[in-house]
Specification:
Elements (H helix, E strand, L loop, with lengths): L6 H29 L4 H23 L2 H6 L3 E5 L2 E4 H26 L5 H7 L2 H26 L3 H28 L1 H22 L6 H37 L1
Antiparallel strand pairs: 1-2
Helix pairs in contact: 1-2, 1-6, 1-7, 1-8, 2-6, 2-7, 4-6, 4-8, 7-8, 8-9
Amino acid sequence: MESLFTAEILIALATLTALELVLGIDNIIFISILAGRLPPEQRARARRLGIAGAAITRLGLLFAIVWITRLTYPVFEAFGQPFSWRDMILIGGGLFLIAKATLEIHHKVEGAGGDPSLKRAATSFAGVIAQIMVLDIVFSLDSIITAVGMVDERWVMVTAIVVSIAFMLAFAGPIGDFVERHPTVKVLALSFLIMIGLVLIADGFGMHIPKGYVYTAMAFSVFVEAINMWIRSREKKTAASAGEAGGG
């Protein structure tokens, strides 16, 4: 039992859990934005199913470690660059993420409009869940490969994944509601997804971009938006106070 809780393993568990939590934020943003296209009474269910799908996918991939490691073997070469199944999945997922985020921004800025049949397809419950599951695979693959490269003990990986899933279940609702209430935050979140898509594509082409740079840029953007929201809130309070004073 003592060998299970050495200082090295505990540090690895803490590090991997933190990493899984950070990677889980990407999933929460995507799930929240897609669920926001559904009627209010279906959003919580879609979020729960999406997160449950992420849990099943991650744990399933974790217990198929041998298959996962084979995905990193080159299967063909183009222009002197070897490509593995992992690379192709990341490139495809990144392209899907960029396309989806771009369409969501267009929908947000230009309005629903267009062909009513397309609108129904975009907001169908099954369609939303299918899109969530596709990205769950991409995010889970990246997450599990990172975990396998960091630790050897499978129980450490399982614990980190379970903690991250619990975090997603706890905060997906509040984050989703917050994003829906603030249009500028939603556009910012969609911009994050485009950036994450670019990172996935770059990784698929063998150009690794340190995640620290990406999340630092995201954190700075959130800080700037928080200041803007605070300024707008103060302006509304000032306007309301002036209105009450004028009415009195």
